[in-house]
Amino acid sequence: MENLNETKEGKEMNRRPKVICHMTTSLDGKVTGGFLGMPECERATEVYYEINRSYHADAYACGRVTMEGSFTGGWFPQLRAYQGERIPREDYAADQDAHFFAVAFDRKGRLGWRTSCIVDEDPGYGGAHIIEVMLEDVSDAYLAYLRETGVSYIFAGRNEMDIELALEKLRSLFGIETLLLEGGSIINGAFARAGMIDELSLVIAPVTADAADKPLLMDALPQAYDLTGVKQYDGGVVWMNCIAKRKTAENGFGK
User: Fold this and answer.
1) Which residues pair with 152 in a beta bridge?
2) Where do the domains of the chain lie, and which CATH numbers do they carry?
3) Residue 251: pLDDT over 80
């Protein structure tokens, strides 16, 4: 039998964290919108957090909009004090000894952090050391601000985000082995297009969403999955777990 560690997939997984996309969805596959505030979604939210804790992941990752809505509230610092700074485009690990991380995919450096860790009463999120993932064209002033605040950052491309490169750096610099990808739709889709989602963990609420609400994976490509588990909870909530099938010459799916 072929040693998994000698296969292309095995080598890839040795370089980067395992990525589990963990989301609450409506029956019609939406992940953002007013439906999340419906009473019928309360139990789904509880189940979502229960499963989140059960993974014991090293980090969770979100896109800029989700981080802004959940943690920064739209606050952004005045950068005038940092004008004139010249910062090399080198990755900056402010706290490599942290045991829990919040990874913000923030292409242009638009998030404002008041501290180097997430401040939240929820133990599944609070206390996580923040890592910004950005493109190299971010401003020097913003980098100087992140350094002063104690926020880590890595670069994942010059003009376009390289998801695989970002993941490899998260593993090599911070030792992250399991990462929960928790939205929104745009960053989920970017991971899917890059073939970087290994597992789907979907908590399905017994409601439908508005037509304008965002899907689980924005602009994703076809990908086959193996259904590995289904569990029904009270309140009409269902949890579904799927593992990604990797590309073969025959099926053309995945990466």
Assistant:
1) 131
2) 1-58+186-255 (3.40.430.10), 61-176 (no CATH)
3) no
